[in-house]
Amino acid sequence: VDEGTKQSMIQFMDKVSPGSDQGWSLSTDPCADQWKGVECESQSVKRIVLEELNLSGTLDASPLCRVQSLAVLSLKGNNVAGGIPKEIANCKHLTHLYLGGNRFSGQLPDALSRLNNLKRLDVSDNNFSGPLPNLARISGMITFFAQNNNFTGELPQFDFANLEHFNVSDNNFTGQIPDGGGRFQENSFLGNLGLCGSPLPNSCPAPQPAKKKQKDVSLDKIFIYLGYVILGLIVVLFLVYKIARRSKKKEDGFDGGKNRRSDTSSSKANGALSEPKTSENRSEYSITSVESGMTTSSLVVLSDAPALRDLKFEDLLRAPAEQLGRGKHGSLYKVVLSNGLALAVKRIKDLGIPSEDFKGRMRKMDRAKHPHVLPPVAFYCSKQEKLLVYEYKPNGSLFNLLHGMQNAQIFDWGSRLSVAATVAEALAFMHSELREDGIAHGNLKTTNILLDKDMDPCISEYGLMVVKTQDYSQIPEIRSSAASPHDAFKDDVYGLGLILLELLTGKMVQNNGYDLAKWVHSVVREEWTGEVFDGVLISEGADEERMVRLLQVGLQCINPSPAERPSSRQAAALISSIKDEEERSVSSDS
Ligand SMILES: Nc1ncnc2c1ncn2[C@@H]1O[C@H](COP(=O)(O)OP(=O)(O)OP(=O)(O)O)[C@@H](O)[C@H]1O
């Protein structure tokens, strides 16, 4: 074991066991001389197990996590006090963390949820308090013990299907036990007066409508007021516009006697929608009215969610709006409804297909559903205007995660591989569902991969772009000009390939990916493949062989000839096998 690692281990020991070094000394070797509690494999420190030794110091994660190979840490049954420092996130290879039966206190740091390889976490019988971090991000966790602490707040949505052991009894948790918790005995939840729902005998009260928080004047509020002002201006402009065009509208028979709808119809000028009259007939907002072809311009709600079922066009109008982006395909607004629900509304520019085709497209897409593809919850379509409404995802996009300054450090190889596999699988599913209808994504890129509350990826804006064959001719080296109608699917595979390269290199895609593709090709050709990878991945010790295999999949996907690219299904299978191998290797390591 190298000197640096030895020094780090001794630093950790100084803190955790002040006054006794337990025989750990720089003049000996942790593996060869079998330091107390240390177990090694291939001359690397894998496990540190210091149980019931009356240790009374604190846990210093900074030196500890410099022991890169560490997979297991157990300090069970001591008197270690203080908190778990956020630097614990640097113990990337940790699979087992046992801290039960100590005097730890404070909140569990969010950093814990970044230990993607963690399988077993035991923080029971301590004095921890505050809410739990979102440990559901750790998909492979099989044990979670947190009983006998002072935790508060609601339980996060654990992946109960995967968990084998779970106990949060004797804390101060409140609220409903998340779905799936019923898999465990009530003993796992007892002793929390505020908890309710299965498997506990007390059921939860019916949900109250969300109350508005009055307290803090935050940046959000400023945006909301700004939104109101802008919206007001837009409505005034629109009214002027409408009066000017009033007589013409009548001629159009836009809202003639044949449509029973009282009116959610509208048009839009300068991004504003008119103030429509109210309607009492809920079905006019449902897909059925589109299917019957009776409406040309009402809001069609596709979602069954209770908060959205009665969504009307005027609700979107009245709500404060904040522009999130203006791409070449249209603008995107964040709209917050009066019930607090946040939506993302895409105003599509020049879609290039007639309204009826657009509605047909929406209907088809509504039938293909995948948990990692964001479905539109509603749409609006008139001659002048096409809007698509999505749930607003507050955790940002894959682009932000990769290129946002703070996050780059913590987006490790295991998580990147898992994102790649999920996106590829979701894309392959959508392709197989919508191939016959010829509906591909059309604009697959990292800004269109959103992250949900568990930081799982979700493809957004599927099917929004109607890809025309002439688009391919822009970059002859990359997109064949002789594109067949099905090339839109191979175009998505190209997009997937670029996402893989972005994940592996950490570099941004510009100029339709041409620059990145060219650079990767040249480095690989010079046989400096290792130089391609993001420095963060190299320093974390990610497996280079598997990174190279993923790189090869990426390069196949961006083959200049669409016919030579794999199908999305083939790409997904290749990525999934790399991910399986990674998981096998991590669990055999531990
Ligand atoms: N449903 C959503 N919830 C939260 N953020 C979103 C949502 N949809 C998109 N975004 C984010 O809003 C920003 C603007 O999105 P927009 O679609 O306008 O831009 P784009 O994807 O870069 O360009 P385009 O799709 O027009 O090519 C992007 O950073 C995107 O990640």
Describe the structure.
Residues 250-263 have a biased composition (Basic and acidic residues). This protein is 31% helix and 16% strand. Mean pLDDT is 80; it is low at 210-217, 247-296 and 469-485. The protein contains 15 helices and 23 strands. It is α/β, with parallel strands linked by helices and 590 residues long. It is globular, with a radius of gyration of 28 Å. The strands form five sheets. The chain has a seven-stranded mixed β-sheet with strand order 1-2-3-5-7-9-11, with no helix packed on it. It has a six-stranded parallel β-sheet with strand order 4-6-8-10-12-13, with no helix packed on it. The chain has a six-stranded antiparallel β-sheet with strand order 16-20-21-19-18-17. The longest helix has 26 residues, at 219-244. The two termini are 19 Å apart. The structure holds adenosine-5'-triphosphate.
The kinds of small molecule bound in this structure are: adenosine-5'-triphosphate
Give the percentage of residues in beta strands: 15-25%
Number of strands: 23
What is the residue-mean pLDDT, rounded to a whole number?
Answer: 80
Kindly report the spatial arrangement of strands forming the biggest sheet: 1-2-3-5-7-9-11
* Count of separate DSSP helical elements: 15
Q: Cα-atom Rg, whole angstroms?
A: 28 Å
Q: Catalogue the unreliable spans.
A: 210-217, 247-296, 469-485
| Overall 3D form | globular
The level of helicity is 25-40%
Gap from first CA to last CA: 19 Å
The major pleated sheet works out as: 7 strands, mixed
Helix/strand-derived category reads: alpha/beta
Subcellular location: Membrane
Main location: membrane
Binding site for ATP: 346
Region (Disordered): 250-287
